[in-house]
Amino acid sequence: MFFHQRFVPGLSIYSYLVGDEGTKECAVIDPTRDVDDFIEIAKREGLRIAHIFETHVHADFVSGSAELKARLDDVPVIHASGEGGEEWTPPYADVVVRDRDVFSLGKARLQAIHTPGHTPEHMIWALFDDSRSTNIPWLLFTGDFLFVGDVGRPDLLGEEARKQLAHQLYGSVFDTLPIFPDFTEIFPGHGAGSLCGKAIGSRSASTVGYERHFNPSLESSDEPAWVDRLLDGMPVAPPYFRRMKKVNAEGPALIGLERPGRTRYSAKEVHEQRCNHCLIVDVRSKEAFAAGHIPDSINIPLGNVLPTWAGWVLPYDKPTLIVLDDPADMPTVVTHLIRVGFDEVQGYLDDGIGAWANAGYPLAHLESLSVHELEKRLQQETKPYVLDVRTEREWKAGHLPGAHHIHGGLLQEQVGEIPRDVPVVVLCGSGYRASIAASFLKRAGHSDVANVLGGMSAVKAAGLATTTD
Question: Is residue 273 one of the residues assigned to a domain?
Answer without folding.
Answer: yes
